[in-house]
Model the fold of this input.
Amino acid sequence: MNVFRLAGDMTHLLSIMVLLLKIHSMKSCAGISLKTQELYVLVFATRYLDIFTTYFSFYNTVMKIVFLVTSFSIVWYMRHHKVVRQTYDRDQDTFRHHLLVIPCFLLALLINHRFTVREVLWTFSLYLEAVAILPQLVLLQRSRNIDNLTGNYVFFLGAYRGLYLFNWIYRYMAEKSQLRWIPWISGLVQTALYADFFYYYIKSWKKREKLQLPA
Amino acid sequence: EEDNEEHDEL
Done:
């Protein structure tokens, strides 16, 4: 495993830890989109089904279990925890996320590496992950107060796929890996969606001001 | 198996 891949995974893990920290310590999920979190549950559930069929490494298995358990528990907290669920910005989080699922699934049926259940589900998870942040970005834009933990959560979540892009370049150049257009293009789209957010995040960080996105 | 190359990623 190269350094970009490891950094990407750690950033991904860090983003989830930041979100859990917010939920546990502040007992709040204000500014967090349940729609995006539900999409992540679907992304991880469809991508990591192979933990039951294929073994890669201890690291791989543990990380997959961590992502599955944490994504399910975040949704549980937001929906059912008696304090946390009252802080959910239900009225602002109106993105119709179901509308993302069907096109991604149809695209996965049409464009995939191999027409098998495992490959189609894997491909679907890549397409869906690329756009899963959209409800969260819309909610952030509507939020007047973005607290630090929420801002950092989205930043780390965006940085993770950006680091994967470097990992793929490295693997292609140094390890002579095959051309893998499906994850590459999905990852590029995913990272590009954060461009605007990154710009304002870094700007506010430099000026030491509170993060606010223009409406 | 070639398919497994990309499935080792998260």
Residues 4 and 10 of chain B are 12 Å apart (CA to CA). The two ends of chain B are 18 Å apart (CA to CA). The interface with chain A takes residues 2-10 of chain B (CB under 8 Å). The helical segments of chain B are 4-7.
